[in-house]
Task: structure prediction
Amino acid sequence: MSASAFARHEATLAGLRRKGRLRALLPRQGVDFASNDYLGLADAPRLKAAISAAMEGGVPVGAGGSRLLRGNHSEHEALEREAASFFGAGKALYFGSGYAANTALFSTLPQRGDLIVHDALIHASVHEGIAAGRAGAVAVRHNDVEAFDRAISDWRRAGGRGQPWIAVESLYSMDGDRAALGALAEIAERHEGFLVVDEAHATGVLGPGGRGLAAGRANVLTLHTCGKALGLSGALLGLPAVLADYLVNRARSFIYSTAPSPLVAAGVREALRMLADEPERRARLASLTELAGECLRSRLGMDASGSQILPVRIGDNARALRIAERMREQGFDIRAIRPPTVPDGTARLRISITLNVDEGQISDMFERLAAVMARET
Result:
């Protein structure tokens, strides 16, 4: 094959490089200020022991097929029962990733004639689901509660007769701020619609017992990812039983995907038990988060988000990359987040606070960051 066969791809990559948007895989190195392992469960001895015990008990590593073929395992079903009880859902359905779960939900449950009103900063996987589905969709300004209500009211006045679906994140992944779930649930109820809450960054960390910020609400569907605070992989959709059954019959990313590892499902079951048994992990994370917020204000003069996700806005893509690289050289694993993951002109460092760091490392990191930012202008 001639080199010209790749010319389009090379041109695209060159364009990304010029704009400071070219991505590359970087190794793990330095103190963890980049991961979503908020509760430090990814390497927890108790999880390792639970998975070892499951393996010794005959639980296979691989599923061997889709859930509708031979891939359905008793560990999947046990996890779904326990998760539905834990999160207060009618039923839970386990997917291989949060991306797959969001894609399945938004491409399948909203029907032709429905309207999906989503926050402008919603996860990319929601956009993928919407694009693959048949419902209409409109984005509204981030965290503007009244805009959700207006969008649905305008749609009704224009003749919209289906059901509205409001899509938000409970804790936003790049800004670390929260959605006004109570007000949004009331809007959904008033318009006889559904509220879909992506709890990815709240699960395990926030809400009663780490159940997330939408726990206990009616007319609400929830997504709880298992690869962040729970330390493993996959995602659990919490929803009414009839909608779960509908997904099993209609969601292509569920029907045509090999089932998640039964061994990982066994691990997620143990992670849910750890949330109940070890509340001190959440308390410890809250303490570290408070300290990090104080450091952000005192060293950088920036307001804290109030969560374990602390954005340090830089603006310029190239400068954000330089600062992140200087910090990694000094032993701190910090990553730059650039458009299109975040809006144009808002390139940032995403500081993530986890139980993989301590007070001294947090204080030292912010002191070094202030010095680096002063030099890298």
About this structure: The chain has 13 helices and twelve strands. The longest strand covers residues 309-315. Residues 280-300 form the longest helix (21 residues).
